Amino acid sequence: MDKKSGTRGFVQGNEAIAEAAIMAGCRFFAGYPITPASEIAEILSVRLPEVDGTFIQMEDEIASMGAIIGSSLAGVKSMTATSGPGFSLMQENLGFACIAEVPCVVVNVMRGGPSTGLPTNPAQGDVMQARWGTHGDHPIIVLAVSTVQDCYEITIEAFNLSEKYRVPVILLSDECVSHTRETVWVPEPKSVKVIERITPSMPPEWYIPFADNARGVPPMAAFGDGYRYHVTGLIHDVRGFPTQRPDEIEAFMRRLFRKITLGLSEIQKTISFMMEDARVAVIAYGSVARSARRAVLQARERKVKAGLLQLITLFPFPRPAVEEVLRQCRTVLVPEMNMGQISREVKRVNQTKCTVKKYNRIDGQLITPEEILRELMKL
Amino acid sequence: MKRSNKRPSRKAKRSALKPSRYEIRLAGSGGQGIITAARILAEAISAGGEKYVCQTQSYGPEARGGASKAEIVVSYEPIDYPKAMNPDLLLAMNQTSCDSYFSDLKPYGLLIVDSTLVRQIPISRAVALPFTDIAREKIGKELVANMVALGAVVRLSQVVAPGIAEEVIAQKVPKAFVEMNIKAFNAGIEAASQVDIDALPASAFSSEEEEL
Questions:
Q1: Which residue of B has its CA nearest to A35?
Q2: Binary contact (A179, B57; C-beta < 8 A)
Q3: ipTM of the predicted structure?
Q4: What is the mean pLDDT of residues A276-286?
Q5: Span A187-197, mean pLDDT?
Q6: Which contacts of A374-378 are long-range, i.e. CB under 8 A and separated by 24 or more positions?
Q7: Which architecture characterizes domain B10-198 according to CATH?
Q8: What is A7-191's CATH number, 3.90.1170.20, 3.40.50.10610, 3.40.50.970, 3.50.4.10?
Q9: How far is A41 from chain B (nearest CA, A)?
Q10: Which of A1, A8, A121 lies nearest to residue B78, judging by beta carbons?
Q11: Domain A269-378, CATH
Q12: Rounded to a whole number, what is the distance in Å from the CA of B199 to chain A's nearest CA?
């Protein structure tokens, strides 16, 4: 976090996510309170009406997800926020958002699990659920925040990617990031780059709602704008009606993946810290990346050439950046507050002689810099 | 060997990456207003200058009675690890939290306890003030013991000007209770003013232990 343009503030992670959503143009939130994500709903219940937006507290998370899909189809940028138990309930409708290509942002503030687990403790156990929680083969974007400053920038990014690619974006936070209050530079709303979804420019009678184009992202008409089309959870043809024809099914599925593949260089974000001459590296994300940053500095003090690759985008997995680190370093450490979900991905893409070590903590506590340093010194 | 009050020990010098980092831990039981006090203190420090401030919290799922802990890290540089590793100041509002955390203190760190609830004080570099008694007797509500303690923390650490903390209290507390909370805060400052920190031993742990 460096000094940036904007005003100095003292802000909680969840508050930053809520405010950033408004800056990004979010005008609809439906959710159900759950620790440690409740503040997002609480703040938006006050802030959204102030900007002519709508806040609804739904009966549960299944309905919350349904509501944001509906409002997004009506042309309004939408978000919901939850934690593990609620995120599990959202999976079915999340799949609907994937197949119907409805832009929306789902914030999952991770706490200890499974089930009710540890409501007030941080964890990173939902990484693979964010990628594969809903059934069927589907592309999805998963981003991870690590500081309150990130909460502004990455939440805005989540909306932009969602609108640009017509894909749900999962924003993974954790109890530690979301409940931390810290000094930040609040971006000036006017200076924020906001991307809007592309809407049809042709007259309604010429509109083919799911027609392919160079980017693979069809223009999206808002319900009520006079463009009549069919939205379904069944695999559909270019007009939105269910199809059984293998050629249409294949074309549809391939387009879903192609639109993300074409944007990979823009979607896959990482931050390199002291990587220029690193021989050992830490690959981390979320609040653990903060501990890792300190551990790397401590290791450098001890003349160990250590570096950090912080993953902002978890999925699509930022393979090019990780492969570069694997080629450069002799050993890579992947500390996580789970039994090894991203370390598995790192091992999957490792085609070099680099050794990949994992370090896991699953007791509801944030991994400390000392632990990472100790592991780094062993490498 | 006598050590000066603020000089870091050899051990601390070796392990502290950035000496500018100042860490505060407030601990007690759920319902005592630990997190509220920390939030006000952190916001006041952030508002009061150019420093970076990071406040984290840790609490149980119970509404009342579970362990509650809040930590504040203050630094002139952006803060990486957000939690306290070795606090410079520990406020313990009950015996359990005092017992659990006193050993994390830096050798020259300061322990402040609510002597109404903490009967056994494990180290001699400690300030014991009866925050809950003060709140009950002077303000008429035990509920504001957290603000009394906050006053004492502000006075003893001098980490922020009392005026700025008062302003933040006025913003954060529901209107009807602002006066009561500020009165409690000032009662804490007053109680702490009678304490002479320089008269305390320079190190929380005996010098023999420290040399080890």
A1: B61
A2: yes
A3: 0.92
A4: 98
A5: 95
A6: A375/A333, A375/A335, A376/A280, A376/A282, A376/A295, A376/A296, A376/A299, A376/A304, A376/A306, A376/A333, A377/A299, A377/A302, A377/A304
A7: 3-Layer(aba) Sandwich (3.40)
A8: 3.40.50.970
A9: 19
A10: A1
A11: 3.40.50.920
A12: 34
